[in-house]
Amino acid sequence: MASRTDASTCSDPIEALTGRFAATRRLSLDLVASLSDADASAQSMPDASPAKWHLAHTTWFFETFVLRDHVPGYALFDDRFPYLFNSYYEAEGPRHARPQRGLLTRPSLDAVRAWRAHVDAAVADALPGLSPAALALVDLGIHHEQQHQELLLTDIKHLFAQNPLGPAVWPRDHASASKVAQFSAMKWIEGKAGIAAAGHDGDGFAFDCEGPRHDALLTPHALASRPVTNGEWQQFIDDGGYRTPSLWLSDGWAWVQAEGIEAPAYWRDRRYFTLAGWQDIDPAAPVTHISFFEADAFASWAGARLPTEVEWEAAAAVHDPNGGDQLDAAGPVQPAAIGGDTGLQQMFGSVWEWTGSAYRPYPGFRAAPGAVGEYNGKFMSGQFVLRGGSCATPRGHMRATYRNFFYPHQRWQFTGVRLAKDL
After folding, report:
1. What is the average pLDDT across 244-273?
2. pTM for the whole thing?
3. Which element (helix H / strand E) includes 330?
4. Beta carbons of 188 and 224 less than 8 angstroms apart
Protein backbone atom coordinates (compact mmCIF):
# COMPACT_ATOMS: atom_id res chain seq x y z
CA MET A 1 0.00 0.00 0.00
CA ALA A 2 1.50 3.32 -1.06
CA SER A 3 1.89 6.07 1.47
CA ARG A 4 0.30 8.63 -0.85
CA THR A 5 -3.10 8.46 -2.50
CA ASP A 6 -5.08 10.36 -5.10
CA ALA A 7 -6.75 12.13 -2.16
CA SER A 8 -3.63 14.30 -1.93
CA THR A 9 -4.79 16.09 -5.11
CA CYS A 10 -8.48 16.24 -4.17
CA SER A 11 -10.09 19.70 -4.31
CA ASP A 12 -12.03 19.10 -1.09
CA PRO A 13 -9.52 19.71 1.75
CA ILE A 14 -11.44 17.54 4.25
CA GLU A 15 -11.64 14.67 1.78
CA ALA A 16 -7.94 15.05 0.96
CA LEU A 17 -6.98 15.06 4.64
CA THR A 18 -9.20 12.02 5.27
CA GLY A 19 -7.48 10.15 2.45
CA ARG A 20 -4.00 11.04 3.68
CA PHE A 21 -4.92 10.01 7.21
CA ALA A 22 -6.27 6.63 6.07
CA ALA A 23 -3.27 5.93 3.79
CA THR A 24 -0.76 6.81 6.49
CA ARG A 25 -2.46 4.70 9.12
CA ARG A 26 -2.69 1.77 6.68
CA LEU A 27 0.98 1.93 5.72
CA SER A 28 2.01 1.61 9.38
CA LEU A 29 0.02 -1.62 9.64
CA ASP A 30 1.52 -2.87 6.38
CA LEU A 31 5.02 -2.34 7.78
CA VAL A 32 4.37 -4.72 10.69
CA ALA A 33 2.17 -7.23 8.85
CA SER A 34 4.88 -9.92 8.76
CA LEU A 35 5.91 -9.52 12.42
CA SER A 36 4.96 -11.86 15.22
CA ASP A 37 3.82 -10.50 18.57
CA ALA A 38 7.31 -11.30 19.91
CA ASP A 39 8.97 -9.45 17.00
CA ALA A 40 6.79 -6.40 17.64
CA SER A 41 7.34 -6.37 21.42
CA ALA A 42 11.15 -6.57 21.67
CA GLN A 43 13.43 -3.55 22.14
CA SER A 44 17.03 -3.90 20.99
CA MET A 45 18.49 -0.76 22.60
CA PRO A 46 17.31 2.37 24.46
CA ASP A 47 17.42 4.49 21.27
CA ALA A 48 15.00 2.11 19.54
CA SER A 49 11.40 1.25 20.38
CA PRO A 50 9.35 -1.89 19.77
CA ALA A 51 7.26 -1.89 16.59
CA LYS A 52 4.16 -2.30 18.71
CA TRP A 53 5.08 0.81 20.68
CA HIS A 54 5.34 2.87 17.49
CA LEU A 55 1.85 1.72 16.46
CA ALA A 56 0.53 2.59 19.90
CA HIS A 57 2.30 5.92 20.38
CA THR A 58 1.06 7.34 17.07
CA THR A 59 -2.45 6.23 18.04
CA TRP A 60 -2.07 7.91 21.43
CA PHE A 61 -1.10 11.12 19.61
CA PHE A 62 -4.36 11.23 17.63
CA GLU A 63 -6.51 10.11 20.56
CA THR A 64 -4.96 12.66 22.92
CA PHE A 65 -4.48 15.82 20.88
CA VAL A 66 -7.41 15.42 18.47
CA LEU A 67 -10.15 13.26 20.01
CA ARG A 68 -9.71 13.97 23.72
CA ASP A 69 -9.11 17.69 23.27
CA HIS A 70 -11.46 18.50 20.37
CA VAL A 71 -14.33 15.98 20.28
CA PRO A 72 -16.86 16.60 23.09
CA GLY A 73 -17.84 13.46 24.95
CA TYR A 74 -15.05 11.27 23.57
CA ALA A 75 -14.00 8.60 26.09
CA LEU A 76 -10.51 7.11 26.04
CA PHE A 77 -10.31 3.58 24.69
CA ASP A 78 -8.28 2.56 27.76
CA ASP A 79 -7.30 5.13 30.39
CA ARG A 80 -4.15 3.12 31.22
CA PHE A 81 -2.65 3.61 27.75
CA PRO A 82 -1.53 7.27 28.04
CA TYR A 83 1.00 6.33 30.73
CA LEU A 84 2.36 3.51 28.55
CA PHE A 85 2.55 5.33 25.22
CA ASN A 86 3.33 8.99 25.91
CA SER A 87 6.88 9.54 24.68
CA TYR A 88 8.40 12.73 26.07
CA TYR A 89 5.53 15.21 26.56
CA GLU A 90 6.06 16.47 30.09
CA ALA A 91 2.81 18.45 29.94
CA GLU A 92 0.94 15.15 29.54
CA GLY A 93 2.23 13.79 32.82
CA PRO A 94 4.35 10.81 33.86
CA ARG A 95 5.15 8.01 31.44
CA HIS A 96 6.72 4.57 31.17
CA ALA A 97 10.52 4.81 30.96
CA ARG A 98 11.85 4.75 27.40
CA PRO A 99 14.56 2.09 27.97
CA GLN A 100 11.88 -0.25 29.38
CA ARG A 101 9.43 -0.18 26.48
CA GLY A 102 10.50 -3.70 25.54
CA LEU A 103 9.03 -4.96 28.84
CA LEU A 104 5.51 -4.11 27.66
CA THR A 105 4.48 -7.59 26.55
CA ARG A 106 0.91 -6.45 27.20
CA PRO A 107 -1.17 -5.06 25.57
CA SER A 108 -0.64 -7.49 22.72
CA LEU A 109 -0.03 -6.53 19.11
CA ASP A 110 -3.62 -7.47 18.28
CA ALA A 111 -4.90 -5.33 21.16
CA VAL A 112 -2.93 -2.36 19.81
CA ARG A 113 -4.39 -2.98 16.36
CA ALA A 114 -7.88 -2.97 17.89
CA TRP A 115 -7.14 0.36 19.58
CA ARG A 116 -5.89 1.79 16.29
CA ALA A 117 -9.08 0.70 14.52
CA HIS A 118 -11.18 2.37 17.21
CA VAL A 119 -9.25 5.65 17.02
CA ASP A 120 -9.14 5.60 13.22
CA ALA A 121 -12.92 5.27 13.05
CA ALA A 122 -13.42 8.04 15.60
CA VAL A 123 -11.08 10.43 13.77
CA ALA A 124 -12.73 9.68 10.42
CA ASP A 125 -16.18 10.36 11.91
CA ALA A 126 -15.02 13.57 13.56
CA LEU A 127 -13.03 15.08 10.67
CA PRO A 128 -15.91 16.87 8.86
CA GLY A 129 -16.82 18.77 12.01
CA LEU A 130 -13.38 19.57 13.42
CA SER A 131 -12.20 23.14 13.93
CA PRO A 132 -9.30 24.51 11.87
CA ALA A 133 -7.04 24.11 14.92
CA ALA A 134 -8.01 20.45 15.26
CA LEU A 135 -7.56 19.83 11.53
CA ALA A 136 -4.04 21.26 11.83
CA LEU A 137 -3.37 18.73 14.58
CA VAL A 138 -4.57 15.89 12.32
CA ASP A 139 -2.12 17.13 9.68
CA LEU A 140 0.65 17.27 12.29
CA GLY A 141 -0.30 13.77 13.44
CA ILE A 142 0.06 12.42 9.90
CA HIS A 143 3.56 13.87 9.56
CA HIS A 144 4.38 12.63 13.06
CA GLU A 145 3.30 9.10 12.10
CA GLN A 146 5.38 9.26 8.92
CA GLN A 147 8.41 10.00 11.08
CA HIS A 148 7.57 6.94 13.16
CA GLN A 149 7.21 4.79 10.06
CA GLU A 150 10.86 5.46 9.29
CA LEU A 151 11.82 4.84 12.91
CA LEU A 152 9.77 1.66 12.87
CA LEU A 153 11.75 0.31 9.91
CA THR A 154 15.14 1.22 11.33
CA ASP A 155 14.24 -0.11 14.78
CA ILE A 156 13.08 -3.43 13.30
CA LYS A 157 16.31 -3.62 11.29
CA HIS A 158 18.40 -3.05 14.42
CA LEU A 159 16.42 -5.67 16.32
CA PHE A 160 16.71 -8.35 13.64
CA ALA A 161 20.43 -7.63 13.22
CA GLN A 162 20.98 -8.77 16.82
CA ASN A 163 19.71 -12.25 15.94
CA PRO A 164 22.56 -14.65 14.99
CA LEU A 165 20.21 -16.22 12.43
CA GLY A 166 20.13 -12.95 10.47
CA PRO A 167 16.40 -13.22 9.72
CA ALA A 168 14.81 -11.23 6.91
CA VAL A 169 11.73 -9.12 7.54
CA TRP A 170 10.88 -9.36 3.84
CA PRO A 171 12.36 -11.68 1.18
CA ARG A 172 14.94 -10.16 -1.13
CA ASP A 173 12.64 -10.49 -4.18
CA HIS A 174 10.20 -8.13 -2.45
CA ALA A 175 12.57 -5.22 -3.16
CA SER A 176 11.64 -2.66 -5.79
CA ALA A 177 12.60 -3.67 -9.31
CA SER A 178 12.97 -0.02 -10.36
CA LYS A 179 16.32 0.53 -8.68
CA VAL A 180 19.32 0.82 -11.00
CA ALA A 181 22.62 -0.64 -9.83
CA GLN A 182 24.88 1.75 -11.75
CA PHE A 183 27.92 3.68 -10.60
CA SER A 184 28.11 7.44 -11.08
CA ALA A 185 31.44 9.26 -10.86
CA MET A 186 31.57 11.98 -8.20
CA LYS A 187 31.89 15.55 -9.47
CA TRP A 188 32.02 18.93 -7.77
CA ILE A 189 29.07 21.25 -8.31
CA GLU A 190 29.56 24.90 -7.42
CA GLY A 191 26.98 26.17 -4.96
CA LYS A 192 25.27 29.50 -4.52
CA ALA A 193 27.32 32.25 -2.85
CA GLY A 194 26.18 35.44 -1.18
CA ILE A 195 23.01 36.10 0.81
CA ALA A 196 20.54 33.19 0.70
CA ALA A 197 17.12 32.82 2.28
CA ALA A 198 16.87 29.74 4.51
CA GLY A 199 14.05 28.13 6.41
CA HIS A 200 10.37 27.56 5.69
CA ASP A 201 8.31 30.50 4.41
CA GLY A 202 5.04 29.44 6.05
CA ASP A 203 3.34 28.21 2.86
CA GLY A 204 2.13 24.67 3.56
CA PHE A 205 3.05 22.27 6.34
CA ALA A 206 6.38 22.45 8.15
CA PHE A 207 7.61 21.56 11.62
CA ASP A 208 8.24 24.50 13.91
CA CYS A 209 12.04 24.07 13.85
CA GLU A 210 12.10 24.76 10.08
CA GLY A 211 11.36 28.45 10.57
CA PRO A 212 11.28 31.31 10.63
CA ARG A 213 12.72 32.11 7.23
CA HIS A 214 15.85 34.21 7.50
CA ASP A 215 18.89 35.34 5.55
CA ALA A 216 22.23 33.55 5.76
CA LEU A 217 25.63 34.23 4.16
CA LEU A 218 27.09 31.58 1.88
CA THR A 219 30.79 31.75 1.04
CA PRO A 220 32.07 30.22 -2.24
CA HIS A 221 31.82 26.44 -2.06
CA ALA A 222 31.00 23.28 -3.97
CA LEU A 223 29.01 20.16 -3.14
CA ALA A 224 29.70 16.62 -4.30
CA SER A 225 27.34 15.52 -7.05
CA ARG A 226 26.26 12.46 -5.06
CA PRO A 227 26.66 10.85 -1.65
CA VAL A 228 29.77 8.85 -0.75
CA THR A 229 29.52 5.20 -1.82
CA ASN A 230 30.26 1.92 -0.09
CA GLY A 231 33.23 1.42 -2.39
CA GLU A 232 34.73 4.75 -1.42
CA TRP A 233 34.14 3.98 2.23
CA GLN A 234 35.98 0.69 1.83
CA GLN A 235 38.96 2.68 0.54
CA PHE A 236 38.80 4.77 3.72
CA ILE A 237 38.85 1.57 5.79
CA ASP A 238 41.68 0.02 3.76
CA ASP A 239 43.73 3.20 4.19
CA GLY A 240 43.49 2.92 7.97
CA GLY A 241 40.78 5.54 8.43
CA TYR A 242 39.51 3.98 11.65
CA ARG A 243 43.06 3.74 13.01
CA THR A 244 44.24 7.30 12.31
CA PRO A 245 43.46 9.65 15.21
CA SER A 246 44.43 12.79 13.28
CA LEU A 247 41.33 12.38 11.10
CA TRP A 248 38.91 12.38 14.01
CA LEU A 249 37.34 14.88 16.34
CA SER A 250 38.42 14.19 19.92
CA ASP A 251 34.98 12.93 20.94
CA GLY A 252 34.82 10.85 17.79
CA TRP A 253 38.18 9.19 18.41
CA ALA A 254 37.15 8.41 21.99
CA TRP A 255 33.94 6.84 20.63
CA VAL A 256 35.84 4.74 18.08
CA GLN A 257 38.16 3.39 20.76
CA ALA A 258 35.51 2.82 23.42
CA GLU A 259 33.10 1.05 21.03
CA GLY A 260 35.66 -0.76 18.87
CA ILE A 261 34.29 0.83 15.69
CA GLU A 262 35.90 -0.49 12.51
CA ALA A 263 33.21 -0.03 9.83
CA PRO A 264 29.69 1.33 9.33
CA ALA A 265 26.95 -0.35 11.33
CA TYR A 266 25.75 -3.68 9.92
CA TRP A 267 28.98 -4.36 7.99
CA ARG A 268 30.65 -7.75 8.45
CA ASP A 269 33.15 -9.50 6.17
CA ARG A 270 32.24 -7.39 3.10
CA ARG A 271 28.55 -8.04 3.66
CA TYR A 272 25.89 -5.95 5.35
CA PHE A 273 22.66 -6.67 7.12
CA THR A 274 19.47 -5.42 5.48
CA LEU A 275 15.75 -5.82 6.02
CA ALA A 276 16.07 -8.68 3.52
CA GLY A 277 18.80 -10.36 5.61
CA TRP A 278 22.54 -10.48 4.94
CA GLN A 279 23.56 -9.29 1.46
CA ASP A 280 26.77 -8.59 -0.43
CA ILE A 281 27.79 -4.95 -0.16
CA ASP A 282 27.05 -2.97 -3.33
CA PRO A 283 30.15 -0.80 -3.86
CA ALA A 284 28.21 1.70 -6.00
CA ALA A 285 25.40 2.30 -3.51
CA PRO A 286 25.51 5.17 -1.00
CA VAL A 287 27.17 4.22 2.26
CA THR A 288 24.72 4.29 5.15
CA HIS A 289 24.46 3.79 8.92
CA ILE A 290 27.39 6.05 9.66
CA SER A 291 27.66 8.49 12.56
CA PHE A 292 28.45 12.19 12.38
CA PHE A 293 31.87 11.33 13.80
CA GLU A 294 32.51 8.92 10.91
CA ALA A 295 31.17 11.36 8.30
CA ASP A 296 33.46 14.10 9.59
CA ALA A 297 36.51 11.80 9.69
CA PHE A 298 35.87 10.62 6.12
CA ALA A 299 35.58 14.22 4.96
CA SER A 300 38.94 15.00 6.57
CA TRP A 301 40.50 11.95 4.92
CA ALA A 302 39.07 13.04 1.56
CA GLY A 303 40.44 16.58 1.89
CA ALA A 304 36.94 17.99 2.11
CA ARG A 305 34.38 18.92 4.77
CA LEU A 306 30.72 18.46 5.60
CA PRO A 307 28.27 20.91 4.02
CA THR A 308 26.44 23.41 6.17
CA GLU A 309 22.70 22.95 6.30
CA VAL A 310 22.16 26.27 4.48
CA GLU A 311 24.52 25.22 1.67
CA TRP A 312 22.59 21.99 1.36
CA GLU A 313 19.19 23.72 1.44
CA ALA A 314 20.15 26.31 -1.17
CA ALA A 315 21.26 23.52 -3.51
CA ALA A 316 18.20 21.34 -2.87
CA ALA A 317 15.64 24.11 -3.34
CA VAL A 318 15.37 23.49 -7.10
CA HIS A 319 15.01 19.71 -6.76
CA ASP A 320 11.78 17.73 -6.40
CA PRO A 321 11.41 16.65 -2.74
CA ASN A 322 9.11 13.84 -3.85
CA GLY A 323 11.74 12.37 -6.14
CA GLY A 324 14.44 9.85 -5.43
CA ASP A 325 14.49 6.61 -3.50
CA GLN A 326 11.85 7.01 -0.78
CA LEU A 327 9.29 4.78 0.95
CA ASP A 328 6.21 3.97 -1.14
CA ALA A 329 5.15 0.62 0.28
CA ALA A 330 6.14 -1.92 2.90
CA GLY A 331 9.32 -3.72 1.91
CA PRO A 332 13.07 -4.16 2.52
CA VAL A 333 14.22 -0.61 1.82
CA GLN A 334 17.93 -0.12 1.17
CA PRO A 335 19.68 2.75 -0.66
CA ALA A 336 20.73 1.89 -4.18
CA ALA A 337 23.08 3.33 -6.78
CA ILE A 338 21.59 5.46 -9.55
CA GLY A 339 22.52 6.20 -13.12
CA GLY A 340 23.39 9.54 -14.69
CA ASP A 341 26.30 11.85 -14.11
CA THR A 342 25.00 15.42 -14.49
CA GLY A 343 24.28 17.85 -11.70
CA LEU A 344 23.40 17.06 -8.11
CA GLN A 345 21.95 13.60 -7.64
CA GLN A 346 20.08 11.87 -4.80
CA MET A 347 19.42 15.11 -2.93
CA PHE A 348 16.20 13.56 -1.68
CA GLY A 349 15.84 9.97 -0.56
CA SER A 350 18.48 7.22 -0.40
CA VAL A 351 20.31 8.40 2.77
CA TRP A 352 19.98 11.21 5.29
CA GLU A 353 23.01 13.45 4.75
CA TRP A 354 24.95 14.69 7.74
CA THR A 355 25.74 18.39 7.75
CA GLY A 356 28.30 20.21 9.86
CA SER A 357 25.55 22.37 11.40
CA ALA A 358 24.50 22.08 15.01
CA TYR A 359 20.78 21.64 15.60
CA ARG A 360 19.98 25.03 17.09
CA PRO A 361 17.06 27.44 16.69
CA TYR A 362 16.87 29.84 13.77
CA PRO A 363 16.77 33.58 14.59
CA GLY A 364 13.34 34.42 15.96
CA PHE A 365 12.30 30.83 16.69
CA ARG A 366 9.60 30.36 19.30
CA ALA A 367 8.22 27.00 20.39
CA ALA A 368 4.44 26.63 20.15
CA PRO A 369 2.51 26.81 23.44
CA GLY A 370 1.27 23.69 25.21
CA ALA A 371 2.33 20.06 24.92
CA VAL A 372 2.70 20.17 21.12
CA GLY A 373 5.35 22.85 21.61
CA GLU A 374 7.60 20.16 23.11
CA TYR A 375 7.88 18.56 19.68
CA ASN A 376 11.25 19.89 18.51
CA GLY A 377 12.57 22.89 20.43
CA LYS A 378 13.46 21.02 23.61
CA PHE A 379 15.98 18.88 21.69
CA MET A 380 18.11 21.76 20.38
CA SER A 381 21.22 20.74 22.29
CA GLY A 382 24.18 18.56 21.36
CA GLN A 383 22.74 17.27 18.08
CA PHE A 384 23.59 17.78 14.40
CA VAL A 385 21.34 18.43 11.42
CA LEU A 386 20.75 15.92 8.62
CA ARG A 387 19.00 16.74 5.37
CA GLY A 388 17.22 15.09 2.46
CA GLY A 389 15.39 12.03 3.77
CA SER A 390 16.19 8.40 3.05
CA CYS A 391 14.91 5.26 1.41
CA ALA A 392 12.80 4.75 4.56
CA THR A 393 11.22 8.23 4.51
CA PRO A 394 7.60 8.10 3.28
CA ARG A 395 7.28 9.87 -0.05
CA GLY A 396 5.48 13.17 0.38
CA HIS A 397 6.97 13.81 3.82
CA MET A 398 10.09 15.66 2.70
CA ARG A 399 10.90 19.34 1.97
CA ALA A 400 14.09 21.24 1.19
CA THR A 401 13.73 22.99 4.57
CA TYR A 402 13.25 19.76 6.58
CA ARG A 403 15.67 19.50 9.52
CA ASN A 404 16.30 16.05 10.96
CA PHE A 405 18.65 15.77 13.92
CA PHE A 406 20.57 13.13 15.84
CA TYR A 407 23.40 12.91 18.33
CA PRO A 408 26.84 12.57 16.71
CA HIS A 409 27.37 8.93 17.73
CA GLN A 410 24.01 7.63 16.48
CA ARG A 411 23.92 5.62 13.26
CA TRP A 412 21.03 3.17 13.28
CA GLN A 413 19.13 5.43 10.90
CA PHE A 414 19.83 5.45 7.14
CA THR A 415 22.50 8.13 7.51
CA GLY A 416 25.13 8.92 4.90
CA VAL A 417 27.30 11.82 3.76
CA ARG A 418 27.75 14.21 0.84
CA LEU A 419 31.07 16.06 0.77
CA ALA A 420 31.60 19.81 0.43
CA LYS A 421 34.64 21.98 -0.07
CA ASP A 422 35.55 25.67 -0.02
CA LEU A 423 36.37 27.44 -3.28
Report:
1. 97
2. 0.93
3. none
4. yes
